[in-house]
Amino acid sequence: MSNSTPRTFNIVCIPGDGIGVDITDAATQVLTALASAFGTFNLKFETLDWSSKNYKQRGYYAPEGGVEGLKKYDAIYFGAVGWPDVPDHISLWQMILPIRTTLNQYANVRPTRIIPGTVSPLSACASDPSLLDWVIVRENSEGEYSGHGGTTPSTAHAAHTVATEVSIFTRVGIERIMRFAFETALHRPRKLLTMVTKSNAQRHGMVLWDAIFYEVAREYDGRVKYDKMLVDAMTVRMVNRPESLDTIVATNLHADILSDLAAALSGSIGIAPSSNLDPTRTFPSMFEPIHGSAPDIAGQGIANPIGAFWSAAEMVRWLAGADGASNDEGLVEGKGVGNMVEAADCLMQAIANVTEKGVKTKDLGGKSNTKEVTDAVCEEISK
Amino acid sequence: MSNSTPRTFNIVCIPGDGIGVDITDAATQVLTALASAFGTFNLKFETLDWSSKNYKQRGYYAPEGGVEGLKKYDAIYFGAVGWPDVPDHISLWQMILPIRTTLNQYANVRPTRIIPGTVSPLSACASDPSLLDWVIVRENSEGEYSGHGGTTPSTAHAAHTVATEVSIFTRVGIERIMRFAFETALHRPRKLLTMVTKSNAQRHGMVLWDAIFYEVAREYDGRVKYDKMLVDAMTVRMVNRPESLDTIVATNLHADILSDLAAALSGSIGIAPSSNLDPTRTFPSMFEPIHGSAPDIAGQGIANPIGAFWSAAEMVRWLAGADGASNDEGLVEGKGVGNMVEAADCLMQAIANVTEKGVKTKDLGGKSNTKEVTDAVCEEISK
Ligand SMILES: CC(C)[C@H](C(=O)O)[C@@H](O)C(=O)O
Ligand SMILES: CC(C)[C@H](C(=O)O)[C@@H](O)C(=O)O
Known about the structure:
The structure is a homodimer of 383-residue chains. By secondary structure, the first copy, chain A, is an alpha/beta fold. The first copy, chain A, has two domains: 7-105 and 273-383, Isopropylmalate Dehydrogenase; 119-148 and 162-267, 3-Layer(aba) Sandwich (Isopropylmalate Dehydrogenase), CATH 3.40.718. Helix content of chain A is 40%, strand content 21%. Chain A has twelve helices and twelve strands. The two termini of chain A are 27 Å apart. The interface between A and B is large, with 68 and 68 residues. One 3-isopropylmalic acid (IPM) sits between chains B (92, 96, 256, 274, 290) and A (200-201, 232). One 3-isopropylmalic acid (IPM) sits between chains A (92, 96, 256, 274, 290) and B (200-201, 232). Chains A, B: Belongs to the isocitrate and isopropylmalate dehydrogenases family. Chains A, B: Keywords: Magnesium, Manganese, Metal-binding, NAD, Oxidoreductase.
């Protein structure tokens, strides 16, 4: 590919509900500014109206074949889903969870650090923000989110009603997420991986999880340091010794909980990104801020767009194939153009410059609205 | 019962492993001092050697019929279990988990607050410790700790190995813990109950959990305020708005995680108590600090005994039947002698006086060892 023919990436946006709409809008503006500032790649956006509002009217989020249809794009940008008038388990199981599993997005990656202009609620990290710098690798395809289980009798009202939740762990599923986590740790400055489990109380799937971790660990001996934590004790370590952690790997549910805690400890849930990756690059990966649809502030133009911008930066970095994925073991490098890595770095720097200056939303202690933060980031990019 | 015939309570101690031994020893000393200072009740101690060391020699923790044998005591005082040379899932499933379920200890109660002389790692709570004052009610008999599930083929080494963890939720199990939690909230100054769930991603057992919560809630309308949180978002609320929480009810696994986080946020895992209650008082309840056996500091005489003392205070309070349990709905009042409530308060005050003075172990920033803290608390009691 010559320098004069910028590569085009087709991005499909699913803004979803509530502030998902505001922040997806902000993210596409910032991404457009980024592409035109660099001129070496193009981003073409399409938008799908898979929202709870439409679900109420039509009876579905994604139409028949809709999730399959996502396979033709280069990446998916997701806002947020969930609205008070649709039970959460319906909105999630009809949209976000099928996307993650159908598109083989088995690795959910959640970096957390304290960006300039934000303050950790932990005294120690408030004085030294460098203490907290983590990447959480979440198993994103099975475990506690398998969806198996049921209720008998099907009404909750019988005196003897019993319901089950069945977590399913497969060797394939565990092995690939462990390998991905070790590869991630290998490309981090500190090369330390902490594996989280609850194998003391959960003696089947979690024991398999542990066994396969140690198996894969042998391949990385001498290259990656590793240790093991019980999920309950892990919260204590995150609070008390953040500097002792680097890369973390955990199950679908455990990492869901730990990554929200991580975001809170870093100063705001509004800044944290989440990448749902198909590390084999067979199907498009999906990028979304970790926050939800926030019905209470939706449509007011005051949502914090930083989590959305950081997610956008992760998308650009993934498209550039510069995420530390290797060709070994099915982790395939991206085929983006070279300086998209610079573009991702540029976006992260723009975010930092803007928050450092104090242009930030209320949740970060600032006074700006979504548009003001977005404009400021676009302006930094074009500098 | 006349004032001149002090009632005797038979307490069975299971020190277990590691620092469990040191702190059980400290707790019995303090309890003995308390009983003799009050003179209105007697505590008679017996000790069972159900340790990992004995397991290695004999092949069992509790002997045949051992757990059943606990039924003849008035209460169980538990240290800690777990030692590096026995896999955790064995030590737990052979001892602590069977005790909890066999003795119908379906409610695990974990108060958390910041006691004098301890400092929260959260800046906000470091300046105003009163912001954090919670009681976590943990479902202690089923859910994610049901033990169901398996591995097929039974070796982890097959390429297609699959393992499951099956969480079981019953109407009876959910209803009784919800009722217990509402009763607990009703007796707290703020009368607020927050229910934790993950019913957006776990759509069977967790949906039943939610439904029964709202059913029971109707009985308390106007008497207890209540709200619902997803477990991931709950960690954020605990960090950011501790003052917005009071009583919390969650499943076995969720509450396990949240209560360790709570202890960390309050300043030390070494001070937090845990009561495993049979609210029907058919069988003895069990009291234990939430910390583990801490192999790294075992036998050095430096373990923090405060969690053990607070657990001892909770035991005395439970024996006095003054825990807010009511006769409605199967929650039966205790038959202890009246001023055991005063005794429990006296022990809590003694702890506070000692930690406030700075007589505390290293983990709390002090320089004292277990014996010095224990002696200081005994001295306070006899004042
Ligand atoms: C929206 C929901 C399914 C979700 C999850 O639990 O996975 C969210 O909390 C997240 O962390 O992405
Ligand atoms: C020892 C272990 C079974 C335990 C649990 O997970 O219940 C501990 O973490 C606790 O919280 O009591």
